[in-house]
Design brief:
The structure holds two protein chains of two kinds.
Chain A: H1 2-17, E1 30-35, E2 37-42, E3 48-50, E4 59-64, E5 70-76, E6 80-82, E7 88-92, E8 98-101, E9 110-112, E10 118-121, E11 127-132, E12 134-136, E13 145-157
Antiparallel strand pairs in A: 1-4, 3-12, 4-11, 5-10, 5-13, 6-7, 7-12, 8-9, 8-11
Chain B: H1 2-21, E1 24-35, E2 40-45, E3 58-60, E4 69-74, E5 82-86, E6 90-93, E7 96-108, E8 117-119, E9 134-143, E10 159-163
Antiparallel strand pairs in B: 2-4, 3-9, 4-9, 5-10, 6-7, 7-8, 7-9
The chains are: A mainly beta, B mainly beta.
């Protein structure tokens, strides 16, 4: 009986030592930020739109898990970018500003609304790319300087 | 034996809890932008025809640094801008009017008009701000007073709009 108790403790320690994110087939769920969403030079009063198909400026995440895994993609999107002395600049995401690509190419995407959770399934390779564009809307009186904000993609493996 | 069952239950809980925890992951990227210096436009000098006599046309050239109208522009260094104008067809003095036409324009990087480039204010222009973020714009025109032009001070507004 004591032996079994020690086995339980050992099992618990073993579980704690495992990588924290494991999927149905034991493969780690990986989510990696690949490219930032880059608006570049923006002029006061002149909105700048970056398409999710813009290879140089669209944001990109890579996702990996077991083949054919059902996943749910959920973005946490900022409404503003923050600049010098706390100045803010509106950042808007539309219904077609995110794209999912099983072949992991920016030219082959299925568009979706980044403001809403999106469920899909990985292909036989167990990998995919997720792209995001958006619209920066500087005011006519927008203070000059560098602005930034954080975009987070959360991936959940569905049963 | 009771301890044994309890241990098994704990073991099952540990494993199942790990499996549930393992289903979510996330990553972040950054959205970035660099906002450029706003455009500022100042009407620095009025377009001044001085004394005009009835029936005698008078022209002020855009190269006339004393009498041509001048706008001073500041903004993001070395950046193209678009100039457009609202140009009056007449000057007014109360109910009396006097035609104004034949607008000319020059833009340059310095207030001395060095290296100035002529343009037609009717169609506008697309100059580039200097390395210091400056641009100077001069406007000339012609007035054509009638032979019976009523005496008085005639004025009108010339408006220049600048956008990136």
């Amino acid at each position: 009986m004591k032996l079994l108790t020690w086995l339980v403790i050992a099992a618990a320690l073993f579980q704690a030592a495992l990588p924290p994110v494991l999927g149905a087939q034991g493969k780690p769920l990986t989510v990696t930020g690949i490219h930032n969403l880059t608006f570049g030079a923006v002029f006061p009063g002149v909105p700048r739109v970056i398409s999710r198909t813009d290879p140089a400026n669209a944001g990109q995440f890579d996702v990996g898990q077991a083949k054919f895994a059902n996943i749910l993609l959920t973005f946490t999107l900022p409404s503003v970018m923050v600049g010098p002395a706390g100045a803010t600049m509106p950042l808007v995401f539309g219904a077609n500003d995110a794209g999912y690509s099983s072949p992991e190419t920016i030219t082959s995407q299925v568009g979706f609304d980044p403001r809403l959770p999106f469920s899909t399934a990985l292909d036989k390779n167990g990998r995919a790319a997720v792209f995001i564009g958006g619209r920066a809307q500087p005011l006519a009186s927008q203070r000059a300087g560098a602005y930034s904000a954080t975009i987070t993609l959360t991936v959940t493996v569905l049963p | 034996m009771r301890i044994s069952k309890l241990s098994l239950a704990v073991l099952a809980l540990v494993i199942s809890a790990s499996a549930v925890q393992a289903q979510t992951n996330n990553a972040s990227i950054t959205a970035t932008a660099s906002v450029q210096t706003p455009i500022n436009v100042v009407g620095a000098q009025s377009l001044n025809f001085g004394n005009v006599f009835p029936g005698v046309n008078k022209t002020v050239a855009a190269t006339d640094l004393t009498n041509a109208g001048r706008f001073d522009v500041t903004g993001q260094a070395s950046t193209p801008v678009t100039l457009s104008f609202t140009l009056p067809a007449t000057l007014s003095s109360g109910a009396n009017t006097m035609p104004i036409d034949t607008y000319t324009g020059i833009h340059a990087a310095t207030s001395a008009q060095t290296g100035g480039v002529a343009f037609n204010p009717v169609t506008g222009a697309n100059p580039t701000l200097s390395g210091a973020g400056a641009l100077f714009v001069w406007i000339g025109a012609r007035v054509t007073p009638a032979t019976n032009q009523a005496q008085g001070v005639y004025t009108a507004n010339v408006t220049m709009t600048v956008v990136y």
